[in-house]
Each structure stands twice: as C-alpha cells, then as structure tokens.
Amino acid sequence: MNKITEALLKIIADIKDGFAGAYSIRENGQCAVRQSSRNIRLEAKADIPGLEIHISSRTRGETVYIPACVTCGGVDDLVYNDFYVGPGADVIIVAGCGVHTDGEESVGHNGVHRFFLEKGSHVVYRETHIGVGAGSGARRIDPVTFAELAEGAALEIATVQLGGVDSTARQTTASLGAAARLTIRERLQTDGR
Q1: d(C-alpha 120, C-alpha 149), whole Å
Q2: What is the DSSP string of 91-132?
Q3: Are residues 60 and 30 in contact, defined by beta-carbon separation less than 8 angstroms?
Q4: How far apart are CA 82 and CA 98, in angstroms?
Q5: Strand, coil or helix: what is 163?
C-alpha cells in the first residue's frame, strides 16, 4: 500500500498498527490485502468487483474491516459488497472511503452494499468518508445501501463524512421482518463546489 492509503486508513478505519481478524483493504480499484477469520469469510466476486462477506452465526463481538482508498486522480472506483449474516450473529463492520487527488482530474468511490441479516442477528455498520489532496479535481463518494432484515434482526448504520468531499448522493432502502430494527445516523459534510 502507498503512504497516502496508510494515512487515510488511520482516519477512516482507525487502523494504526497493522491488521487483525477479518479484513479487506481496497486501493485504487484493486484488492491490496485480504484475510478471513475463523467466523468471517471474505470471498471475491467472480463477475464484478467486490466481495461476499459471510458472517457465521458463531460470531460474537468480532470486527471486520473493509475500507477503500482512491489515491490518484482519474480513478472512479465502483465496488459491490454483499453481507450474509447468520442467525444470532453479533458483529461490527468498519467500512469507509478516503479519496485523494493532487491534480485536476476528479476522483470517486461508489460502494453498493447489500445486507442480508438472518433471524436475531445484530450488525453495527460504521462508515467514515473523507476527501484530501491539494488538487482542484472533484472528490465524489456516492454509496448505495440495501438491507433485508429477518425477524428480530437489528442493523445500526452510522455514517460520518469528515469533509473534503465535493459531492455525495446517498441511497438507502430496506425491507424489515417482524420486530426487526433499522437505525440510521448520518453526519455528512461536503466542501468545495
């Protein structure tokens, strides 16, 4: 990974001293590093960019990291991630994106995330975004989220955009079973144009 990615990861995913557990770090549209854990399996999609993340029903108190960084102008990254969460699982997912440009070319990252939570599962999804760099190129982050929650499942989405991003368009839809809960808290700041 390059130095800009390392700096961005400290901000968006609080990764300072390497990685532990399950993680997948995306850099400039490619997988930089990926590792599964005993209870969380990360698999690359065969036909489109992205991951299938399988979270076992045995998972309790684990964290999986899936941040993405785009560190050069002219890159418009698009990724499709699907989360399959087993019944009764309890997990934290740390995502987010950092985009950087020092030139006139725009830079962007778009994540399409689909959550499939089985009965009684609980997910906390934390997503932090930031744009950096001295360039005049536009910095865009446009996430799309779909969630399907089975009976008694709970999904908590907490999104923070720290600034430096010129444009953000968010789209979130969900389908909830009986007694399921979806909580969304968004704090978004845009800058520049």
Answers
A1: 9
A2: EEEEEEEEEE-SSSS-EEEEEEEEEEE-TT-EEEEEEEEEEE
A3: no
A4: 20
A5: coil
Strand 68-70 versus strand 22-27 pairing type: parallel
Report how far residue 49's alpha carbon sits from residue 139's, in angstroms, rounded to the nearest whole number.
21
Cα pseudo-dihedral 175, 178, 179, 180, rounded to 10: -20
- In the beta sheet, which residues pair with residue 182? 155
pTM of the model: 0.94
In whole angstroms, give the CA distance from residue 62 to residue 75: 32
For 120-191, strand residue ranges (E) read 122-132, 139-141, 144-149, 154-161, 171-176, 181-188
In degrees, rounded to 5, the angle at the alpha carbon of residue 40 between the alpha carbons of residues 7 and 115 is: 85
Gap between the Cα atoms of 86 and 21, Å rounded: 18
Angstrom distance (rounded) from CA 73 to CA 118: 40
The total of other beta-carbon atoms located within 10 Å of residue 57's CB is 16
CA dihedral 171, 169, 74, 11 (to 10 degrees): -90
Burial of 190 (0-12, 13-18, 19+ CB in 10 A): middle
Mean pLDDT by 10 residues, the chain (193 residues): 92 83 95 96 96 98 96 93 98 95 93 97 96 92 96 97 89 97 92 74
Token couple for 46:
């065969």
